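<goal> How does this chain fold?
<body> The protein record starts here
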Amino acid sequence: HVQLVESGGGLLQPGESLRLSCVASGITFSRHDMSWVRQAPWKEVEWVAGITSLPSLFRAASYADSVKGRFTISRDNVKNTLYLEIVSLKPEDTAVYYCARGRTYLPDWGQGTQVTVS
Protein backbone atom coordinates (compact mmCIF):
# COMPACT_ATOMS: atom_id res chain seq x y z
CA HIS A 1 0.00 0.00 0.00
CA VAL A 2 1.02 3.61 -0.51
CA GLN A 3 2.83 5.21 2.39
CA LEU A 4 3.86 8.85 2.56
CA VAL A 5 5.80 9.96 5.62
CA GLU A 6 6.46 13.64 6.21
CA SER A 7 9.07 15.13 8.49
CA GLY A 8 10.82 18.42 9.16
CA GLY A 9 8.14 20.46 10.85
CA GLY A 10 8.55 22.27 14.14
CA LEU A 11 8.26 25.55 16.00
CA LEU A 12 9.98 28.41 14.23
CA GLN A 13 10.13 32.17 14.39
CA PRO A 14 8.97 34.54 11.66
CA GLY A 15 11.62 35.01 9.01
CA GLU A 16 13.21 31.61 9.50
CA SER A 17 13.38 28.88 6.89
CA LEU A 18 12.80 25.15 6.88
CA ARG A 19 12.67 22.16 4.58
CA LEU A 20 9.98 19.53 4.80
CA SER A 21 10.57 16.02 3.48
CA CYS A 22 8.22 13.26 2.45
CA VAL A 23 9.45 9.74 1.85
CA ALA A 24 7.23 7.63 -0.37
CA SER A 25 6.91 3.86 -0.47
CA GLY A 26 4.50 1.42 -2.04
CA ILE A 27 4.46 3.34 -5.33
CA THR A 28 6.80 3.91 -8.25
CA PHE A 29 7.50 7.41 -7.03
CA SER A 30 9.07 8.69 -10.23
CA ARG A 31 5.88 8.04 -12.18
CA HIS A 32 3.63 10.26 -10.10
CA ASP A 33 2.98 13.97 -9.90
CA MET A 34 3.22 15.03 -6.26
CA SER A 35 1.86 17.88 -4.20
CA TRP A 36 2.06 19.59 -0.86
CA VAL A 37 -1.11 20.74 0.82
CA ARG A 38 -1.65 22.38 4.18
CA GLN A 39 -4.42 22.90 6.67
CA ALA A 40 -4.29 25.78 9.09
CA PRO A 41 -6.35 25.78 12.27
CA TRP A 42 -10.04 26.37 11.53
CA LYS A 43 -9.37 26.66 7.79
CA GLU A 44 -9.96 24.51 4.75
CA VAL A 45 -7.22 22.46 3.17
CA GLU A 46 -5.09 24.53 0.82
CA TRP A 47 -3.05 23.11 -2.05
CA VAL A 48 0.28 24.97 -2.00
CA ALA A 49 2.64 23.33 -4.49
CA GLY A 50 2.87 20.59 -7.09
CA ILE A 51 5.58 19.01 -9.18
CA THR A 52 5.31 16.84 -12.26
CA SER A 53 6.70 13.36 -12.70
CA LEU A 54 8.61 14.30 -15.83
CA PRO A 55 12.38 13.88 -16.10
CA SER A 56 14.23 16.75 -14.48
CA LEU A 57 14.89 18.53 -17.76
CA PHE A 58 11.15 18.84 -18.37
CA ARG A 59 9.90 18.82 -14.80
CA ALA A 60 7.55 21.62 -13.85
CA ALA A 61 6.58 23.05 -10.49
CA SER A 62 3.53 25.13 -9.71
CA TYR A 63 2.47 27.11 -6.66
CA ALA A 64 -0.51 28.71 -5.06
CA ASP A 65 -0.42 32.47 -5.39
CA SER A 66 -0.32 32.78 -1.62
CA VAL A 67 3.10 31.11 -1.41
CA LYS A 68 4.81 32.00 -4.68
CA GLY A 69 8.32 33.28 -4.19
CA ARG A 70 8.74 31.71 -0.74
CA PHE A 71 8.00 28.01 -1.32
CA THR A 72 10.05 25.68 -3.49
CA ILE A 73 8.96 22.14 -4.22
CA SER A 74 11.46 19.57 -5.44
CA ARG A 75 11.92 15.84 -5.63
CA ASP A 76 14.64 13.21 -5.60
CA ASN A 77 13.42 10.18 -7.51
CA VAL A 78 16.42 8.11 -6.41
CA LYS A 79 15.55 8.65 -2.76
CA ASN A 80 11.78 8.54 -3.36
CA THR A 81 11.57 11.81 -1.52
CA LEU A 82 9.56 14.98 -2.02
CA TYR A 83 10.71 18.27 -0.50
CA LEU A 84 9.23 21.63 0.31
CA GLU A 85 11.53 24.50 1.19
CA ILE A 86 9.96 27.51 2.84
CA VAL A 87 11.79 30.77 3.38
CA SER A 88 10.76 33.91 5.23
CA LEU A 89 8.23 32.04 7.32
CA LYS A 90 5.15 33.95 8.40
CA PRO A 91 2.71 33.25 11.24
CA GLU A 92 0.08 32.53 8.59
CA ASP A 93 2.19 29.59 7.40
CA THR A 94 1.24 27.80 10.62
CA ALA A 95 -0.49 24.61 9.54
CA VAL A 96 -0.21 20.87 9.22
CA TYR A 97 1.60 20.16 5.97
CA TYR A 98 0.80 17.03 4.02
CA CYS A 99 2.41 15.52 0.98
CA ALA A 100 0.03 13.89 -1.45
CA ARG A 101 0.20 11.78 -4.56
CA GLY A 102 -1.17 13.58 -7.57
CA ARG A 103 -1.80 17.13 -8.65
CA THR A 104 -5.51 17.85 -9.12
CA TYR A 105 -6.72 14.53 -7.77
CA LEU A 106 -4.97 13.56 -4.52
CA PRO A 107 -5.85 9.98 -3.62
CA ASP A 108 -3.08 9.39 -1.10
CA TRP A 109 -1.86 11.62 1.73
CA GLY A 110 0.70 11.32 4.47
CA GLN A 111 -0.03 11.83 8.15
CA GLY A 112 1.23 15.41 8.07
CA THR A 113 3.87 17.41 9.88
CA GLN A 114 3.07 20.42 12.04
CA VAL A 115 4.68 23.75 11.27
CA THR A 116 4.14 26.50 13.82
CA VAL A 117 5.45 30.00 13.26
CA SER A 118 5.31 32.20 16.30
